[in-house]
Amino acid sequence: MATSSSFTFTHKHFDDLTLMELHDLMWLRNEVFVFYQKITAEPEVDGLDPQCVHLLGRDSAGRLVATARLFMDEDPVKVGRVAVHQDLHRSGVGTALMHYAHTVIGQRPAALSAQNYLRDWYERLGWRPKGEVYDEAEIPHIYMVRP
């Protein structure tokens, strides 16, 4: 567990999530990806969550405000479904979430498919673009690695 200002971060394998934690992270991802970003070309519930370690970021009231999933059994570790509640964009919670992800990943190499508009932010966090911009769920993305 880690604390960053008024946010607390934990991580759990899918099998260790409580029903309420699973509900909260699915609600947040739906809120961010489907409702806010209007991503409908790719199903949010893709059947891959049971393979993952899930990062949970809560505010001081205990509300889930940030989440991501890590495929820890892959090489490189795959980071996905990074989501921050839209009310907290540019608040630092996303940066704190990614720092926590780096702690969980440790020294292992990692990769992610970043929405291209977030490329500079990920680069400031130590990620490097690899390849060209491509469309994923009708949104420009860039493959990025963290050596």
Structure, briefly:
By secondary structure, the protein is an alpha+beta fold. It contains three helices and nine strands; from the N terminus they run ββαβββαβαβββ. It is 25% helix and 35% strand.
Overview of this protein structure:
With 147 residues, the chain is α+β, with helices and mostly antiparallel strands. A hairpin with a 2-residue loop joins strand 1 (2-4) and strand 2 (7-13). The protein has helices spanning 19-36, 93-105, 119-124, and strands at residues 2-4, 7-13, 53-58, 64-71, 77-84, 110-115, 128-129, 134-136, 139-146. The model has no long low-confidence stretch (mean pLDDT 92).
Topology, pairings included?
Elements: E1 2-4, E2 7-13, H1 19-36, E3 53-58, E4 64-71, E5 77-84, H2 93-105, E6 110-115, H3 119-124, E7 128-129, E8 134-136, E9 139-146
Parallel strand pairs: 5-6
Antiparallel strand pairs: 1-2, 2-3, 3-4, 4-5, 6-9, 7-9, 8-9
